[in-house]
Specification:
- The chain has a domain of about 170 residues: P-loop containing nucleotide triphosphate hydrolases (Rossmann fold), CATH 3.40.50.
- Helices cover about 45% and strands about 10% of the residues.
- It has 12 helices and 5 strands.
- It has a 5-stranded parallel β-sheet with strand order 2-3-1-4-5, sandwiched between helices.
- Strand 2, helix 2 and strand 3 form a beta-alpha-beta unit.
- The longest helix has 19 residues.
- The radius of gyration is 18 Å and the shape is globular.
- The protein starts with a strand and ends in a 13-residue tail after the last helix.
């Protein structure tokens, strides 16, 4: 089967839960590589044959299939690779309030040993860690940047520029943006949008528990306030884009 949809972001935004809930639909075949292949970001060198082998055969009887990677939206080469390989694919984006997402991202990397700096120091180090990394990735498609993938705390929350890049390659009708907070508060209401978007019958699912949920202490208020101020202009830019029907209040 050829993937009909991809969940493309964002990291620590709810994409894992969204994907696993979506693939509970009886007409939708899950990817054989669990959540996804990471083909269009870090496994592109493996080739199209390897990618296609990760999906069910047409004879399996499903209507559609798809996969997810929260790195696809942020990776500098993934969107154009997707557009070239899957010109008719539909993209699903799950966006979480950026300060809460950033805190979860940092705590997640700390817990997995990918980060040793406390938040303030990690944010201070981010520009130097990421300096030149996108250029290296564009110059050498085989190059994998550890910091771009794991230490891009502030940058990942600049949703508007990432979404604008997607909309340069895909029509508005092929991009569905979900608000993470709505998804977890009323999952079946948000999934109804997904079923319509993917052109499959609506179903009501039960037992929709969040997956990979983190349990962390609260971010220090001074840091949260500064980050909310930072993201204010980026959020306003996001709210002006087509397909965005939500805003965020104060969080964290």
């Amino acid at each position: 089967m050829t993937p009909s949809f991809l969940v493309v972001g964002t990291k620590r935004g709810g994409s894992t839960s969204a994907y696993h809930w979506i693939t509970r639909h009886p007409a939708i075949a899950p990817c054989r590589a669990l959540k996804g292949t990471h083909y269009f970001d870090v496994n592109y060198r493996r080739g199209a044959g390897w990618f296609r082998s990760k999906f069910e055969p047409v004879s399996a009887g499903f209507q559609i299939t798809g996969e997810a990677s929260p790195y696809y939206m942020f990776h500098p080469l993934a969107p154009s690779r997707i557009a070239q390989a899957l010109p008719d694919v539909k993209l699903i984006v799950v966006l979480r309030e950026p300060v809460a997402r950033l805190w979860s991202h940092h705590q997640y990397e700390m817990a997995r040993g990918h980060e040793h700096l406390p938040l303030a120091q990690a944010l201070e180090a981010e520009p130097s860690r990421l300096r030149g990394e996108v250029e290296r990735m564009l110059a050498d498609p085989a190059y994998e940047s550890f910091s771009h993938r794991h230490h891009s705390y502030l940058s990942r929350g600049h949703y508007a520029e990432q979404l604008e890049r997607l909309l340069e390659l895909f029509t508005v009708q092929r991009v569905l943006v979900l608000q993470s907070e709505r998804l977890f508060a009323a999952p079946n209401a948000e999934l109804a949008k997904v079923w319509d978007f993917l052109d499959v019958p609506r179903v009501e699912l039960t037992g929709l528990a969040p997956m990979k949920a983190g349990h962390y202490s609260a971010m220090p208020e001074a840091e949260a306030r500064a980050l909310r101020e930072h993201y204010e202009v980026h959020n306003r830019r996001l709210y002006s884009l087509p397909g965005i029907d939500f805003t965020w209040g104060v969080s964290v």
